[in-house]
Amino acid sequence: MMSIAARSGALSPYMQATKQTVKSLVSPGAQHLVPAAAPGGIRLAHTDIKIPDFTDYRRPEVLNPNKSSQESSEERRLFSYLVTGATTVVGVYTAKTVVSQFVSSMSASADVLALSKIEVKLSDIPEGKNMTFKWRGKPLFVRHRTEKEIAAEEAVNISELRDPQHDKERVQNPSWVIVLGVCTHLGCVPIANAGDYGGYYCPCHGSHYDASGRIRKGPAPLNLEVPYYEFLSEDTVMVG
Ligand code: FES
């Protein structure tokens, strides 16, 4: 049987280090013989590990290992630009769709919009008369003016008015005055065909409006409001 000393020339570094450690344990006085490099610091090569092949996943431009990646940078950059551009377009379109759906969900529904408009049949209102309708919870005055009223309102000097507005600015058709029946003082409902000017009179604090709905006397600061309206035909007007 060969001694340890006789075989030490054929030992691997790991075994030599192990031998030195065993010696130091058997002979405590020989601890100075332990090598500086501990056995744990030695790494052995494992040449049997298989390296996975990623060739199928690599771009054709970088398959050649002998080719510099800089040579294929143009093609790869173009691909990156295309992907980025397509992603941006899809992202912007998605954001636009989400935002427009969110905003449209907050707008009034069709039934609410239908209630916000009112159609008035004008032939039901005799000349010289005023009819009151309910529109968006407020009174709406539709007045069929006479030729005399039209001439009188058009002749008013607007420099004398508190809220200067010519009659032509307040009507689309001189025969029809369409205004909200809400006094601009504190919101009472004026009385039609009353007051000093023959238009509307608010009994709450005594405001007088003319036949164009303009304030002529009393505490109200502004003319009666003219809502948006359009004539659908000669006989029909739609307000709202
Ligand atoms: S509310 Fe009409 S005059 Fe005051």
UniProtKB/TrEMBL annotation:
Cofactor note: Binds 1 [2Fe-2S] cluster per subunit.
PROSITE patterns in alphabetical order: RIESKE
InterPro entries linked to this entry: bc1_Rieske_TM_sf, Rieske_2Fe-2S, Rieske_2Fe-2S_sf, Rieske_Fe-S_prot, Rieske_Fe-S_prot_C, Rieske_TM, Ubiquinol_cyt_c_Rdtase_Fe-S-su, UQCRFS1_N
The reaction(s) this protein catalyses: a quinol + 2 Fe(III)-[cytochrome c](out) = a quinone + 2 Fe(II)-[cytochrome c](out) + 2 H(+)(out)
Keywords: 2Fe-2S, Disulfide bond, Electron transport, Iron, Iron-sulfur, Membrane, Metal-binding, Mitochondrion, Respiratory chain, Transmembrane, Transmembrane helix, Transport
Rieske domain boundaries: 170-238
Domain of life (superkingdom): Eukaryota
Residues annotated as transmembrane: none
Enzyme class, first EC level, given as a word: translocase
GO MF terms held by the record: 2 iron, 2 sulfur cluster binding; metal ion binding; quinol-cytochrome-c reductase activity
Entry-linked SUPFAM superfamilies: ISP domain, ISP transmembrane anchor
Similarity-based family: Belongs to the Rieske iron-sulfur protein family.
Stated name of the protein: Cytochrome b-c1 complex subunit Rieske, mitochondrial
Gene: LOC115009480
